[in-house]
Design brief:
Number of domains: 2
Strand content: 35-45%
Largest sheet: 5 strands, antiparallel
Shape: globular
Distance between the termini: 28 Å
Radius of gyration: 21 Å
Helix content: 10-25%
Amino acid sequence: MLEGIHGKAKYIVHYSDLTCGALIADLDEIKKKGIQSFRYLGMKYLLYKADLLKQMSEKNTMETEVFRLTTFNTTKCYSFALKTRTEGKWPHEKHFTTNPLQYLGYYKSSARWGYGDQSGGSETFEHNGKLTTIIYDYEGRTCFTII
């Protein structure tokens, strides 16, 4: 619960079951009511971060951040997409895609072959008993997200 005070009026916002998207939607409502100070500094920071998230989502409505993963965990689920844009310089690059993410399931195994320009690799995932193998492309656009 978040308590805010505006003049003599007191507003209470319940956030325990909200998703981040719902919190962002509630942020607009809170701002409309004119709440100026918050009882918990942690919640004020959370609302600030939610506002930043909202601005970012409005700016890049169709982009999703993806990662050039090289190590995988067998207890986590993954999705896949080819990156369409890179921002920043190595080693602090961020990768983004406008392509839809393909759900892969749990990580199973890796394979590597060749040497130099003739090398390649793949990752295998399992979802509902079906194995899916993603082969890395030559240009290095293969990216994953952890779900």
